Protein backbone atom coordinates (compact mmCIF):
# COMPACT_ATOMS: atom_id res chain seq x y z
CA UNK A 1 0.00 0.00 0.00
CA UNK A 2 1.33 3.44 -0.98
CA UNK A 3 0.58 6.31 1.41
CA UNK A 4 1.17 10.02 0.95
CA UNK A 5 3.47 11.68 3.47
CA UNK A 6 4.46 15.33 3.75
CA UNK A 7 7.01 17.34 5.66
CA UNK A 8 5.83 20.82 6.62
CA UNK A 9 7.63 23.63 8.43
CA UNK A 10 5.11 25.13 10.87
CA UNK A 11 4.95 28.53 12.57
CA UNK A 12 7.02 30.09 9.81
CA UNK A 13 6.49 31.63 6.38
CA UNK A 14 9.69 30.18 4.87
CA UNK A 15 11.24 26.76 4.44
CA UNK A 16 13.93 25.48 6.81
CA UNK A 17 12.65 27.52 9.75
CA UNK A 18 9.91 26.98 12.31
CA UNK A 19 9.16 23.43 13.45
CA UNK A 20 9.13 20.57 10.93
CA UNK A 21 6.35 18.00 11.22
CA UNK A 22 5.56 14.93 9.16
CA UNK A 23 1.93 14.48 8.11
CA UNK A 24 0.64 11.07 7.00
CA UNK A 25 -2.77 10.87 5.29
CA UNK A 26 -4.33 7.47 5.93
CA UNK A 27 -6.93 5.97 3.56
CA UNK A 28 -9.05 4.21 6.17
CA UNK A 29 -11.59 5.66 8.62
CA UNK A 30 -9.76 4.22 11.63
CA UNK A 31 -6.16 4.37 12.76
CA UNK A 32 -3.69 1.54 12.17
CA UNK A 33 -1.92 -0.27 14.99
CA UNK A 34 -0.14 2.18 17.31
CA UNK A 35 3.17 0.33 17.04
CA UNK A 36 3.28 0.97 13.29
CA UNK A 37 2.60 4.70 13.77
CA UNK A 38 5.27 4.87 16.46
CA UNK A 39 7.78 3.12 14.18
CA UNK A 40 7.07 5.56 11.35
CA UNK A 41 7.46 8.52 13.73
CA UNK A 42 10.83 7.13 14.82
CA UNK A 43 11.80 6.72 11.14
CA UNK A 44 10.85 10.34 10.37
CA UNK A 45 12.77 11.45 13.51
CA UNK A 46 10.98 14.79 13.79
CA UNK A 47 9.58 16.20 16.99
CA UNK A 48 6.12 15.03 15.84
CA UNK A 49 4.54 12.97 13.10
CA UNK A 50 0.80 13.49 12.61
CA UNK A 51 -1.59 10.77 11.41
CA UNK A 52 -4.94 11.70 9.87
CA UNK A 53 -8.06 9.66 9.09
CA UNK A 54 -11.14 11.16 7.44
CA UNK A 55 -14.26 11.26 9.58
CA UNK A 56 -16.43 13.22 7.12
CA UNK A 57 -16.83 16.64 5.50
CA UNK A 58 -18.47 18.60 2.73
CA UNK A 59 -17.15 16.31 -0.03
CA UNK A 60 -18.91 13.23 1.35
CA UNK A 61 -21.73 14.87 3.29
CA UNK A 62 -24.36 12.64 1.73
CA UNK A 63 -22.68 9.57 3.20
CA UNK A 64 -22.22 10.97 6.68
CA UNK A 65 -24.38 10.33 9.65
CA UNK A 66 -25.87 13.42 11.30
CA UNK A 67 -22.93 15.21 12.97
CA UNK A 68 -22.60 17.77 15.72
CA UNK A 69 -23.88 21.23 14.88
CA UNK A 70 -22.26 24.57 15.57
CA UNK A 71 -18.60 25.43 15.94
CA UNK A 72 -16.42 27.57 13.72
CA UNK A 73 -17.72 28.56 10.33
CA UNK A 74 -21.43 27.82 10.76
CA UNK A 75 -23.31 24.52 10.85
CA UNK A 76 -21.53 21.19 11.24
CA UNK A 77 -22.19 20.24 7.59
CA UNK A 78 -19.63 22.78 6.40
CA UNK A 79 -16.80 21.47 8.58
CA UNK A 80 -14.36 18.79 7.40
CA UNK A 81 -13.76 16.28 10.19
CA UNK A 82 -10.64 14.19 10.77
CA UNK A 83 -9.22 11.98 13.46
CA UNK A 84 -5.73 13.14 14.43
CA UNK A 85 -2.97 11.55 16.51
CA UNK A 86 0.58 12.73 17.18
CA UNK A 87 3.76 10.76 17.87
CA UNK A 88 7.27 11.91 18.79
CA UNK A 89 10.11 9.52 17.89
CA UNK A 90 9.59 7.95 21.35
CA UNK A 91 5.96 8.33 22.52
CA UNK A 92 2.42 9.30 21.58
CA UNK A 93 1.46 12.74 22.94
CA UNK A 94 -1.89 14.19 24.00
CA UNK A 95 -1.54 17.65 22.45
CA UNK A 96 0.61 19.11 19.68
CA UNK A 97 0.20 22.51 18.04
CA UNK A 98 2.73 22.58 15.21
CA UNK A 99 1.75 19.18 13.77
CA UNK A 100 -1.94 20.23 13.93
CA UNK A 101 -1.07 23.41 12.04
CA UNK A 102 0.89 21.31 9.52
CA UNK A 103 -2.03 18.88 9.18
CA UNK A 104 -4.53 21.65 8.41
CA UNK A 105 -2.09 23.15 5.88
CA UNK A 106 -1.73 19.79 4.09
CA UNK A 107 -5.47 19.08 4.05
CA UNK A 108 -6.23 22.43 2.41
CA UNK A 109 -3.23 22.28 0.08
CA UNK A 110 -4.12 18.82 -1.25
CA UNK A 111 -7.87 19.43 -1.46
CA UNK A 112 -8.61 16.75 1.16
CA UNK A 113 -10.49 19.60 2.84
CA UNK A 114 -12.20 22.33 0.82
CA UNK A 115 -10.26 25.60 0.74
CA UNK A 116 -12.98 27.56 2.56
CA UNK A 117 -13.90 24.77 4.96
CA UNK A 118 -12.98 24.90 8.64
CA UNK A 119 -11.49 21.65 9.91
CA UNK A 120 -12.45 19.84 13.10
CA UNK A 121 -9.95 17.36 14.59
CA UNK A 122 -10.93 14.59 17.00
CA UNK A 123 -7.93 14.08 19.29
CA UNK A 124 -6.80 12.81 22.69
CA UNK A 125 -7.34 16.40 23.93
CA UNK A 126 -10.89 16.60 22.65
CA UNK A 127 -12.12 18.48 19.60
CA UNK A 128 -9.68 21.02 18.11
CA UNK A 129 -10.39 23.19 15.10
CA UNK A 130 -8.52 25.09 12.40
CA UNK A 131 -9.60 27.97 10.16
CA UNK A 132 -7.84 30.00 7.48
CA UNK A 133 -7.16 33.67 8.24
CA UNK A 134 -5.62 34.98 5.03
CA UNK A 135 -2.05 33.62 4.90
CA UNK A 136 -2.34 32.45 8.51
CA UNK A 137 -3.99 29.44 10.10
CA UNK A 138 -5.82 29.83 13.41
CA UNK A 139 -6.13 26.87 15.78
CA UNK A 140 -8.69 26.63 18.58
CA UNK A 141 -6.94 24.86 21.49
CA UNK A 142 -7.61 24.43 25.21
CA UNK A 143 -5.92 26.94 27.51
CA UNK A 144 -3.36 25.24 29.75
CA UNK A 145 -2.58 27.76 32.52
CA UNK A 146 0.15 26.97 35.03
CA UNK A 147 -0.10 27.16 38.82
CA UNK A 148 2.82 28.15 41.04
CA UNK A 149 4.71 25.29 42.68
CA UNK A 150 5.25 25.62 46.43
CA UNK A 151 8.30 23.37 46.11
CA UNK A 152 10.07 23.60 42.73
CA UNK A 153 12.24 20.63 41.73
CA UNK A 154 15.38 20.50 43.85
CA UNK A 155 18.44 21.91 42.12
CA UNK A 156 16.40 23.37 39.24
CA UNK A 157 18.65 26.41 38.83
CA UNK A 158 21.64 24.10 38.40
CA UNK A 159 19.83 21.95 35.82
CA UNK A 160 18.84 25.01 33.82
CA UNK A 161 22.01 27.01 34.31
CA UNK A 162 19.90 30.05 35.24
CA UNK A 163 18.03 31.34 38.28
CA UNK A 164 14.22 31.12 37.93
CA UNK A 165 12.04 34.14 38.69
CA UNK A 166 8.89 31.99 38.93
CA UNK A 167 8.25 28.23 38.74
CA UNK A 168 4.92 26.54 38.11
CA UNK A 169 3.36 23.63 36.25
CA UNK A 170 0.29 22.63 34.28
CA UNK A 171 -0.93 19.14 33.42
CA UNK A 172 1.89 18.70 30.91
CA UNK A 173 4.92 20.82 31.65
CA UNK A 174 7.16 22.53 34.16
CA UNK A 175 6.97 26.29 33.50
CA UNK A 176 9.86 28.61 34.38
CA UNK A 177 10.07 32.38 34.00
CA UNK A 178 13.57 33.82 33.68
CA UNK A 179 14.72 37.38 34.29
CA UNK A 180 14.85 38.55 30.67
CA UNK A 181 15.02 37.59 27.01
CA UNK A 182 18.80 37.33 27.06
CA UNK A 183 18.63 34.68 29.79
CA UNK A 184 16.20 32.61 27.71
CA UNK A 185 18.26 32.89 24.53
CA UNK A 186 21.56 32.01 26.21
CA UNK A 187 20.18 29.10 28.23
CA UNK A 188 22.21 25.87 27.98
CA UNK A 189 20.48 23.40 30.31
CA UNK A 190 21.60 19.91 31.27
CA UNK A 191 19.13 18.20 28.95
CA UNK A 192 20.03 14.68 30.07
CA UNK A 193 19.19 15.48 33.69
CA UNK A 194 16.05 17.41 32.71
CA UNK A 195 14.73 14.13 31.27
CA UNK A 196 14.43 12.76 34.82
CA UNK A 197 11.87 15.41 35.84
CA UNK A 198 8.25 14.12 35.94
CA UNK A 199 6.96 16.38 33.16
CA UNK A 200 6.37 16.13 29.43
CA UNK A 201 8.67 19.12 28.96
CA UNK A 202 10.23 22.22 30.46
CA UNK A 203 8.91 25.55 29.17
CA UNK A 204 11.21 28.52 29.79
CA UNK A 205 9.90 32.02 29.08
CA UNK A 206 10.53 35.75 29.61
CA UNK A 207 9.16 39.10 28.53
CA UNK A 208 10.63 40.29 25.24
CA UNK A 209 13.18 43.08 25.17
CA UNK A 210 11.96 46.05 23.12
CA UNK A 211 8.80 44.19 22.14
CA UNK A 212 7.48 46.85 19.75
CA UNK A 213 10.69 46.90 17.72
CA UNK A 214 10.93 43.11 17.56
CA UNK A 215 7.28 42.43 16.74
CA UNK A 216 6.64 40.01 19.59
CA UNK A 217 5.77 40.36 23.26
CA UNK A 218 7.34 37.31 24.88
CA UNK A 219 9.98 34.70 24.19
CA UNK A 220 10.23 31.05 25.11
CA UNK A 221 12.16 27.83 24.62
CA UNK A 222 10.92 24.29 25.16
CA UNK A 223 12.86 21.18 26.16
CA UNK A 224 11.26 17.70 26.11
CA UNK A 225 14.01 15.09 26.46
CA UNK A 226 11.68 12.68 28.29
CA UNK A 227 9.55 12.58 25.11
CA UNK A 228 12.57 12.09 22.85
CA UNK A 229 12.96 15.76 21.85
CA UNK A 230 15.97 17.54 23.34
CA UNK A 231 14.75 21.00 22.28
CA UNK A 232 11.60 21.59 20.27
CA UNK A 233 11.97 24.33 17.63
CA UNK A 234 8.45 25.88 18.02
CA UNK A 235 5.89 24.35 20.39
CA UNK A 236 2.28 25.30 19.71
CA UNK A 237 0.88 23.48 22.74
CA UNK A 238 3.32 25.29 25.05
CA UNK A 239 1.77 28.57 23.91
CA UNK A 240 -1.54 27.36 25.37
CA UNK A 241 0.30 28.15 28.62
CA UNK A 242 2.42 31.08 27.42
CA UNK A 243 -0.74 32.95 26.37
CA UNK A 244 -2.59 32.80 29.72
CA UNK A 245 0.61 33.37 31.69
CA UNK A 246 1.72 36.54 29.93
CA UNK A 247 -1.67 37.97 29.05
CA UNK A 248 -2.41 38.41 32.74
CA UNK A 249 1.00 39.83 33.58
CA UNK A 250 1.19 42.20 30.62
CA UNK A 251 -2.51 43.10 30.55
CA UNK A 252 -2.55 42.36 26.83
CA UNK A 253 -4.72 40.18 24.60
CA UNK A 254 -3.94 39.17 21.88
CA UNK A 255 -0.16 38.89 21.98
CA UNK A 256 2.67 37.39 19.94
CA UNK A 257 5.31 34.94 21.11
CA UNK A 258 8.67 34.08 19.58
CA UNK A 259 10.21 30.70 20.31
CA UNK A 260 13.94 31.42 20.35
CA UNK A 261 15.29 28.07 19.18
CA UNK A 262 17.93 27.79 16.47
CA UNK A 263 15.17 27.65 13.82
CA UNK A 264 12.77 30.07 15.53
CA UNK A 265 9.12 30.81 14.89
CA UNK A 266 6.23 33.16 15.67
CA UNK A 267 2.96 32.19 17.37
CA UNK A 268 -0.02 34.52 17.72
CA UNK A 269 -2.10 33.96 20.87
CA UNK A 270 -5.57 35.17 21.77
CA UNK A 271 -7.38 34.09 24.92
CA UNK A 272 -11.10 33.32 24.65
CA UNK A 273 -12.37 32.01 27.97
CA UNK A 274 -10.89 28.57 28.58
CA UNK A 275 -9.57 28.39 25.00
CA UNK A 276 -6.56 29.87 23.22
CA UNK A 277 -6.53 30.74 19.53
CA UNK A 278 -3.07 30.01 18.17
CA UNK A 279 -2.09 31.59 14.86
CA UNK A 280 0.75 30.55 12.59
CA UNK A 281 1.90 30.00 9.03
CA UNK A 282 3.20 26.87 7.32
CA UNK A 283 5.26 25.83 4.30
CA UNK A 284 5.41 22.40 2.64
CA UNK A 285 9.03 21.32 2.23
CA UNK A 286 8.48 18.02 0.44
CA UNK A 287 5.88 15.34 -0.28
CA UNK A 288 6.42 11.69 -1.09
CA UNK A 289 5.06 8.17 -1.01
CA UNK A 290 5.49 5.71 1.82
CA UNK A 291 5.85 2.20 0.44
CA UNK A 292 6.25 0.28 3.71
Distance between the termini: 7 Å
Radius of gyration: 19 Å
Q: Unreliable segments (pLDDT under 50, ≥5 consecutive)?
A: 59-77
Q: What would you call the structural class?
A: alpha+beta
Shape: globular
What count of helical segments does DSSP give?
A: 7
- Tell me how many strands there are: 18
Q: Helix and strand string, N-terminal first? A: EEHEEEHEEEEHEEHHEHEEHEEEE
| Biggest sheet details | 18 strands, mixed
What's the rounded overall pLDDT mean?
Answer: 92
β-strand amount: 35-45%
Helical coverage, percent range: 10-25%
Please give a quick description of this structure.
The protein is an alpha+beta fold. Helices cover 19% and strands 38% of the residues.
List the helices and strands and how they pair.
Layout: E1 3-10, E2 19-25, H1 34-44, E3 48-56, E4 80-87, E5 92-93, H2 98-110, E6 119-123, E7 126-133, E8 136-142, E9 147-148, H3 156-160, E10 166-169, E11 173-177, H4 181-186, H5 191-194, E12 201-207, H6 211-214, E13 218-224, E14 229-232, H7 239-250, E15 255-259, E16 265-272, E17 275-280, E18 282-290
Parallel strand pairs: 2-3, 4-6, 11-12, 13-15
Antiparallel strand pairs: 1-2, 1-18, 3-4, 4-5, 6-7, 7-8, 8-17, 9-10, 10-11, 12-13, 13-14, 15-16, 16-17
What does this structure look like?
This protein is α+β, with helices and mostly antiparallel strands and 292 residues long. 19% of the residues lie in helices and 38% in strands. The protein is built from 7 helices and 18 strands. The protein has an 18-stranded mixed sheet that branches. A hairpin with a 4-residue loop joins strand 13 (218-224) and strand 14. The N and C termini lie close together (7 Å). The relative contact order is 0.18.
